[in-house]
Design a protein that fits this description.
Elements (H helix, E strand, L loop, with lengths): L1 H22 L10 H16 L2 E13 L3 H15 L5 E6 L2 E9 L2 H11 L7 E8 L12 H4 L2
Antiparallel strand pairs: 1-3, 1-4, 2-3
């Protein structure tokens, strides 16, 4: 009987202390190296200065030869007729003309598009790319009237 009473008391003590622990409020203080906050500030400043973004493009052709310039522009116009929403870029690195399409932010999106066009454009590959950030100002809503005047 005495053992049961001790177990009951311990159970009561555990339940009340657990419920009391949930109602207490404390203060958390985070201490760290000052250099960490400086590095975070430098990282933020660097990202604000960046004018490019990493991405991927699908290369649909690499041409070289006597008539490669005309062929690349014909391929560009043919591709634009089939996919008007996808950007087409002609890159000239002597003596080659490379035709790359799309502005994909993930490699998976580029591979999905490549699989979609692979039957029409055999030999396509996905390239890593860095391209400038283009902001679409028409979709930006001003926060205040003062911002609207800018």
């Amino acid at each position: 009987m005495k053992k049961k009473l001790v177990y009951l008391f311990l159970l009561f003590l555990a339940v009340t202390s657990a419920s009391y622990a949930q109602t207490r409020k404390g203060k958390v203080e985070i201490t760290g190296d000052v250099n960490v906050s400086e590095l975070v500030k430098k990282h933020i400043e660097f990202n604000e200065r960046m004018q490019t973004v990493p991405g991927y493009r699908v290369q649909i052709a690499a041409l070289s030869g006597a008539d490669s310039r005309n062929q690349s522009f014909e391929l560009k116009s043919k591709f634009k007729e089939e996919y008007p929403d996808v950007e087409v870029y002609i890159i000239f690195n002597e003596p080659n003309f490379r035709i790359r399409v799309g502005d994909f932010t993930s490699k998976l999106d580029a591979y999905v598009f490549m699989r979609r066009i692979k039957d029409r454009y055999p030999g396509t590959i996905v390239n890593d790319n860095v391209y400038p950030i283009h902001l679409d100002w028409s979709n930006i809503v001003p926060e205040t009237d003062a911002d609207a005047d800018l």
